[in-house]
C-alpha cells in the first residue's frame, strides 16, 4: 500500500513537472542566477577594510548604510540584512526585465508565479533567454520592451547585495533606489503589482528628498540636483501617462476589420507626437536628466507606456493621502498601509 502511495505521488509530481515545465525551467534558471550572485558576494565590512578598494566607492557604500538606517529610523521601513554584502558586476548588467502589451490596447501581459502572485513583467538573469522570450512574445503579436535592471528585491527572503553599479549613482538617485527596494521588503501585496511599484516609487522619491535635506541641508547641491531631476521626471511620467490614455482612446475607434497597416500608421503617428512633445517639458530643459531622446527609427510602443502605468500612475493619489490624512508622517502612513493591505 505504501509503495502504491509513493508511486502515485511520484507520478503526480512528474505530471505537474511536465504540465508546468516552462515555469519549472524558468524558476530553476532564476534560482541558479540568484544563487550564483549570492555565492560571490563579499561582506561589506571586508570591502571597507580592503586597502585595494577605492576610497571614493567605500564612501558610497557608507552612504548606502546611512540611507538604509534613515529609512528604518525616519520613514518606518522594516529593518533587514539587505545591503550588508557587496557584489561586483564587473561592469556588466546582470538582470533584464521584459514588459509586453496587446498591440492595439494598453493591456499588460501578466505572468503568474507561486506564492508571490502575478507580475506585469518578467525578469531574467540570462540575456539570451530574455531575448528568446521577447522574440516569442513578438511572434504572438504583442508589443514588447526589454531593459536592464539596476536593482531588485527578494522581499526579505534573501540578503539583497549592494551591486557595484549602484556606487556610480548620484546621491539622490542612490537614495531613491535603496528606499524603493526596502519598501518592497516592508510591504508587498500579492497580485497587486501596480500598487507595490507605485508605493515603492513614491517612498523612494519623497524619502530621497528627506534624506538629502537631512544629510546635506536644504540649500545643498545634492538636494537641488535631485529636486530638479525629480521635477522633470514627474513631468515626463505624467506626460507619458496622458499619452497612454490618448492611445487607448485611439484604439477604441479602430473597427475590427480595419487593416493592420492603417492601424499602425495611426498608432505610430500619435506615439511620434507624444514623444516629440517631451522636448517642451519644463521649457525644454533636460540638462540634469538622462531621459532618452526618441527618433523616427525607434519609437516606443505600448509596452513602454505600460511601464509607466505600473510605476507612476498612482503617485498623485499617494501624495494626497500622505499629506492630507497623515500630515506627511511616513511612519504613520506606512503603519496604516500595512494594516490595510495583507503583505507577503
Task: Report what the structure shows.
The protein is mainly α and 344 residues long. It has two domains: 1-39; 41-340, no CATH class. The chain has twelve helices and eight strands. The chain has helices at residues 2-19, 21-38, 44-48, 55-75, 127-139, 171-186, 193-216, 221-251, 260-276, 302-312, 315-324, 330-340; strands at 42-43, 85-87, 96-101, 111-113, 117-119, 122-124, 143-148, 162-163. Helix 4 (55-75) crosses helix 6 (171-186), helix 6 crosses helix 7 (193-216) and helix 8 (221-251) packs antiparallel against helix 9 (260-276). The radius of gyration is 22 Å and the shape is globular. The two termini are 39 Å apart.
SSE order and pairing:
Blueprint: H1 2-19, H2 21-38, E1 42-43, H3 44-48, H4 55-75, E2 85-87, E3 96-101, E4 111-113, E5 117-119, E6 122-124, H5 127-139, E7 143-148, E8 162-163, H6 171-186, H7 193-216, H8 221-251, H9 260-276, H10 302-312, H11 315-324, H12 330-340
Parallel strand pairs: 2-8
Antiparallel strand pairs: 1-2, 3-6, 3-7, 4-5
Helix pairs in contact: 4-6, 6-7, 7-8, 7-10, 8-9, 8-10
Gist of the model:
The chain has 344 residues and is mainly α. The protein has helices at residues 2-19, 21-38, 44-48, 55-75, 127-139, 171-186, 193-216, 221-251, 260-276, 302-312, 315-324, 330-340, and strands spanning 42-43, 85-87, 96-101, 111-113, 117-119, 122-124, 143-148, 162-163.
Amino acid at each position: 500500500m505504501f509503495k502504491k502511495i509513493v508511486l502515485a505521488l511520484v507520478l503526480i509530481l512528474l505530471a505537474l513537472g511536465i504540465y508546468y515545465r516552462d515555469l519549472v525551467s524558468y524558476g530553476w534558471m532564476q534560482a541558479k542566477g540568484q544563487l550564483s550572485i549570492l555565492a560571490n558576494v563579499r561582506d561589506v565590512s571586508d570591502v571597507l577594510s580592503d586597502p585595494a578598494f577605492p576610497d571614493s566607492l567605500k564612501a558610497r557604500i557608507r552612504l548606502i548604510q546611512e540611507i538604509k538606517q534613515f529609512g528604518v529610523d525616519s520613514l518606518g521601513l522594516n529593518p533587514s540584512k539587505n545591503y550588508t554584502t557587496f557584489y561586483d558586476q564587473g561592469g556588466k548588467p546582470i538582470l533584464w526585465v521584459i514588459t509586453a502589451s496587446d498591440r492595439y490596447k494598453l493591456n499588460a501581459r501578466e505572468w503568474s508565479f507561486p506564492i508571490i502572485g502575478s507580475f506585469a513583467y518578467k525578469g531574467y538573469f540570462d540575456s539570451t533567454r530574455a531575448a528568446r522570450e521577447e522574440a516569442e512574445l513578438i511572434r504572438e503579436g504583442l508589443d514588447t520592451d526589454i531593459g536592464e535592471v539596476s536593482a531588485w528585491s527578494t522581499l526579505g527572503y534573501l540578503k539583497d547585495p549592494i551591486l557595484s553599479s549602484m556606487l556610480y549613482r548620484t546621491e539622490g538617485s542612490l537614495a531613491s533606489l535603496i528606499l524603493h527596494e526596502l519598501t518592497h521588503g516592508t510591504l508587498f501585496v500579492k497580485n497587486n503589482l501596480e500598487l507595490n511599484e507605485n508605493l515603492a516609487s513614491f517612498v523612494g522619491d519623497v524619502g530621497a528628498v528627506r534624506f538629502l535635506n537631512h544629510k546635506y541641508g536644504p540649500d545643498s547641491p545634492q538636494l537641488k540636483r535631485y529636486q530638479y531631476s525629480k521635477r522633470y521626471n514627474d513631468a515626463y511620467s505624467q506626460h507619458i501617462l496622458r499619452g497612454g490614455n490618448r492611445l487607448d482612446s485611439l484604439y477604441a475607434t479602430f473597427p475590427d476589420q480595419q487593416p493592420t497597416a492603417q492601424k499602425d500608421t495611426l498608432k505610430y503617428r500619435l506615439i511620434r507626437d507624444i514623444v516629440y512633445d517631451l522636448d517642451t517639458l519644463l521649457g525644454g530643459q533636460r540638462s540634469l536628466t538622462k531621459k532618452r531622446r526618441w527618433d523616427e527609427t525607434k519609437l516606443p510602443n505600448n509596452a513602454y507606456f505600460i511601464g509607466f502605468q505600473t510605476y507612476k500612475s498612482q503617485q498623485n493619489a499617494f501624495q494626497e493621502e500622505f499629506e492630507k490624512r497623515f500630515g506627511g508622517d511616513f511612519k504613520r502612513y506606512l503603519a496604516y498601509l500595512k494594516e490595510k493591505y495583507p503583505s507577503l
